[in-house]
From TrEMBL:
PROSITE patterns: D_ALA_DEHYDRATASE. NCBIfam families: PRK09283.1. Keywords: Heme biosynthesis, Lyase, Magnesium, Metal-binding, Porphyrin biosynthesis, Zinc. Zn(2+) binds at residues 119, 121, 129. 5-aminolevulinate 2 binds at residues 273, 312. The gene is hemB. The keyword Transferase does not apply. It comes from Blautia liquoris. This is Delta-aminolevulinic acid dehydratase. Gene3D superfamilies: Aldolase class I. Pathway: Porphyrin-containing compound metabolism; protoporphyrin-IX biosynthesis; coproporphyrinogen-III from 5-aminolevulinate: step 1/4. The active site is at 194 (schiff-base intermediate with substrate), 247 (schiff-base intermediate with substrate).
Length: 327
């Protein structure tokens, strides 16, 4: 056989396979999403997300400690308040759940990087991501609240804010508000390319944030669209977003890749609750190998173009990187 092109030559052993890997990852690009809730002495497992918990502020440090030991130094905080109202006032309260978690986290873990999700759905009685007028979310009225929430997070110690509401103009509104109050160096990671997705189901159980009527399709994107995602990404970069996120990750690899080609800011991808829940459920049944699937999902997200990966598997992935299984 006259065959001089043999791709298998570079697959012959572990050393050569690792040498030619095209995708390299680092633990510093992992962000762990974490739920904090009002109350005391709470560590409650989320039923649709085995292995993930809701923590009260006094119990969260054990988890932060484990993350730090594993080399995961960034977390994204989601708050679950005791009280909800029409305007989600606990979201910007000085003593709100996220604000208290930030002050405590800052004090105990000065080297951790704290990012906060800026949204209203966990805090509003109706479960929508903004202020309602009739049955509609009022975009411009909501911007005032979102910027107030972002400022309250930064004042409590957030290193970065991440608006996930999908209102038009929120990045600019937040940027102005932070700048005016002396926080011009605090970055904004925008959930810019965020689809109306059934993959958020388990999160809504976890955060008790499902809308009480209707759905989020009037603000989150229609998953039939990709060029619209580029529009969203470019708008947010224009408004001052420092990092652009694509969400979910698994079914949206095309978007991660396209956004990476179109914008020159770092691209993050969020492997959401439903992705995690599917892997856990299938693994529990013995139908898939959890670790290998988790690794494959992570690597393919980076291969598609993500530089930053938000995942409930952050700690486990960090270990796989340490062990040289991936990365
Ligand atoms: C808040 C928000 C959601 C998620 C992140 N921020 C829920 C939603 O938009 O309904 C989902 C994260 C996940 O599913 O893991 N708006």
């Amino acid at each position: 056989m006259d065959q001089n092109l043999r791709p298998r030559r570079l697959r012959g052993g572990n050393t050569i396979r690792k040498m030619v890997r095209e995708t390299r990852m680092d633990k510093s690009s992992l962000i762990y999403p974490m739920f904090v809730m009002d109350g005391m002495n709470i560590k409650e497992e989320i039923s649709s997300m085995p292995g993930q918990y809701r923590y009260s502020v006094d119990r969260m440090s054990a988890q932060l400690e484990l993350l730090q030991q594993a080399g995961v130094s960034s977390v994204m905080l989601f708050g679950i308040p005791d009280e909800k109202d029409e305007v989600g006032s606990q979201a910007y309260a000085r003593n709100g759940i996220v604000q208290r978690a930030l002050r405590e986290g800052r004090r105990l873990f000065p080297d951790m990087y704290f990012i906060t999700d800026v949204c209203m759905c966990e805090y509003t009685s109706h479960g929508h991501c903004g202020i309602l007028h009739g049955n509609d979310v009022d975009n411009d009225e909501t911007l005032k609240y979102l910027s107030e929430i972002a400022l309250s997070h930064v004042e409590a110690g957030a290193d970065m804010v991440a608006p996930s509401d999908m209102m038009d103009g929120r990045v600019l509104a937040i940027r102005h508000k932070l700048d005016k109050n002396g926080h011009k160096d605090t970055p904004i990671m925008s959930y810019a390319v965020k689809y109306a997705s059934a993959f958020y189901g388990p999160f809504r159980d976890a955060a008790d944030s499902a809308p009480s009527f209707g759905d989020r399709k009037s603000y989150q994107m229609d998953f039939h669209n990709s060029r619209e995602g580029i529009k969203e990404a470019l708008l947010d970069v224009g408004e001052g977003a420092d990092i652009i996120m694509v969400k979910p990750a698994l079914s949206y690899m095309d978007m991660i890749n396209k956004v990476k080609e179109q914008v020159n800011v770092p691209v993050a991808a969020y492997s959401v609750s439903g992705e995690y829940a599917m892997v856990k459920a299938a693994a529990k049944n013995g139908w898939i190998d959890e670790e290998r699937i988790m690794c494959e999902m992570a690597v393919s997200t980076y291969r598609a173009g993500a530089q930053i990966y938000l995942t409930y598997y952050a700690r486990e992935l960090a270990k796989c990187m340490d062990d040289g299984i991936i990365g």
